C-alpha cells in the first residue's frame, strides 16, 4: 500500500517536471502562449494609430497579428472578453484579402496629419469582437494585438532577457538596451520588466562613464519630450508635509546606497513642482528629475555577473 502510494507520487512528480520543462514556452512576461498555434500574443489596450501599433509590436520582437487561422481569432476573442470597455475593433496585420469597411464611424484623432485624404481611406484591417475582419481608417485610435511565433521569439542567453538590442559591457558586467520608443516612466519601468531586465540604476562612476559614452551615439526616438533625457530606475514620492523629496531606486536604495548620486548642474530642481522621476542627462551622464508623465527614451539594464565594488 505504502509502496504503491510512493510510486504514484514519483510518477506524478515526474509528470509535473516533464510538463513544466517541455510544454511551457516562455517569452516576455506580458505575452501569453498558445500551444495550438505555438505562438505568443499580447493585446494592447492602449489606443494608437495603425502605424504606431505596427511599430510597438516590432519593438516587442513581434508583429501585428495577421488573423491567419481560426485559432488566432479565438485567441483574440479570449483576450478581448476581459475588456468590455475598449470598443469593438482591434488593429490586426494586413492579410492581403479584400474586406468590407467597418460599419460604425470611427473616432478620428484630431491630431491626425492635415493631409486628411489619407485618413479617409479604409485600408487598414481590424478584427471585430465578433471575429470578422473589416477595414478601418488607418488614423483611428484603436487597441491592437501583437503576435510572435515561438520559433521567432528571441531569447538572448548572454544577457538572459527576452528581446533584441541588448549589448553586454564587460567593464561593468551588465547588458544595456536603449529604447527605440518614448514612454512615460511607468511604461518604461514595465517595458524593461517584461523583457526580464530593469530600468537602469547607476552603481559606480565606471558605469556612469560607460553610459555617458553610449548615450553620445544614441539615436533620436520619435515622440520624446526631450531627446537628451533618458528615464532611469529611480524616483521620489510627493511629500505633502513640506519635507524634502527622497529619491530611491527601484530596489529601494537611496542614490548614495546605490553607488552614484551626482546630479546635473542646478538639478534636482523639481520644475513646476512636478518632477518626481529620474533621468540621465546625455550631455554629462548625470541625473535630472523630470515629470513622470512626460515621455522619454529609456535604458534597460540586466546584470550578467556580480562585480565587486572597487
Ligand atoms: C524601503 O526602505 C525603507 C528604509 O530603508 C524601509 O523603511 C521600507 O520598508 C522599504 N520599503 C520596501 C518596500 O521594502
Ligand atoms: C506633469 O505632471 C502632472 C502630474 O504628474 C501632469 O498633470 C502635468 O500635465 C504634467 N505636465 C506638466 C507640463 O507639468
Ligand atoms: Ca547598474
Ligand atoms: Ca529637473
TrEMBL record:
Q: Gene3D superfamilies under this entry?
A: Mannose-Binding Protein A, subunit A
Instruction: Tell me where the transmembrane regions lie.
Output: none
User: Which residues are in the C-type lectin domain?
Assistant: 171-301
Which keywords does this chain's UniProt record carry?
Signal
- The signal peptide stretch is 1-18
**InterPro entries reported for this sequence:** C-type_lectin-like (IPR001304), C-type_lectin-like/link_sf (IPR016186), C-type_lectin/snaclec_domain (IPR050111), CTDL_fold (IPR016187)
Please report a single Pfam family linked to this protein.
Lectin_C
Full protein name: C-type lectin domain-containing protein
Origin species: Parnassius mnemosyne (clouded apollo)
Amino acid at each position: 500500500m505504502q509502496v504503491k502510494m510512493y510510486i504514484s507520487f514519483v510518477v506524478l512528480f515526474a509528470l509535473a517536471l516533464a510538463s513544466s520543462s517541455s510544454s511551457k514556452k516562455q517569452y516576455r512576461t506580458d505575452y501569453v502562449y498558445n500551444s495550438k498555434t505555438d505562438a505568443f500574443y499580447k493585446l494592447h489596450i492602449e489606443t494608437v494609430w495603425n502605424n504606431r501599433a505596427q511599430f510597438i509590436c516590432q519593438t516587442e520582437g513581434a508583429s501585428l497579428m495577421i488573423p491567419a487561422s481560426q485559432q488566432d481569432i479565438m485567441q483574440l476573442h479570449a483576450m478581448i472578453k476581459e475588456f468590455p470597455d475598449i470598443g469593438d475593433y482591434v488593429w490586426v496585420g494586413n492579410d492581403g484579402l479584400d474586406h468590407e469597411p467597418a460599419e460604425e464611424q470611427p473616432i478620428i484623432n484630431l491630431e491626425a496629419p492635415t493631409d486628411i485624404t489619407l485618413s479617409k481611406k479604409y485600408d487598414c484591417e481590424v478584427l471585430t469582437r465578433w471575429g470578422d475582419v473589416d477595414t478601418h481608417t488607418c488614423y483611428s485610435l484603436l487597441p491592437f494585438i501583437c503576435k510572435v511565433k515561438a520559433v521567432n521569439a528571441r531569447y538572448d542567453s548572454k544577457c538572459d532577457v527576452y528581446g533584441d538590442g541588448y549589448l553586454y559591457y564587460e567593464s561593468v558586467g551588465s547588458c544595456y538596451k536603449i529604447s527605440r520608443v518614448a514612454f512615460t516612466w511607468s511604461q518604461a519601468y514595465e517595458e524593461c520588466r517584461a523583457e526580464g531586465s530593469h530600468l537602469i540604476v547607476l552603481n559606480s562612476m565606471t558605469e556612469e562613464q560607460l553610459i555617458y559614452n553610449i548615450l553620445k551615439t544614441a539615436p533620436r526616438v520619435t515622440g520624446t519630450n526631450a531627446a537628451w533625457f533618458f528615464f532611469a530606475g529611480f524616483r521620489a514620492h510627493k511629500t505633502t508635509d513640506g519635507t524634502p523629496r527622497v529619491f530611491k531606486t527601484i530596489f529601494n536604495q537611496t542614490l548614495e546606497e546605490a553607488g552614484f548620486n551626482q546630479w546635473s548642474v542646478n538639478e534636482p530642481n523639481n520644475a513646476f513642482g512636478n518632477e518626481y522621476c529620474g533621468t540621465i542627462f546625455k550631455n554629462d551622464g548625470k541625473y535630472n528629475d523630470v515629470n513622470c508623465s512626460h515621455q522619454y527614451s529609456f535604458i534597460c539594464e540586466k546584470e550578467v555577473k556580480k562585480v565587486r565594488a572597487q
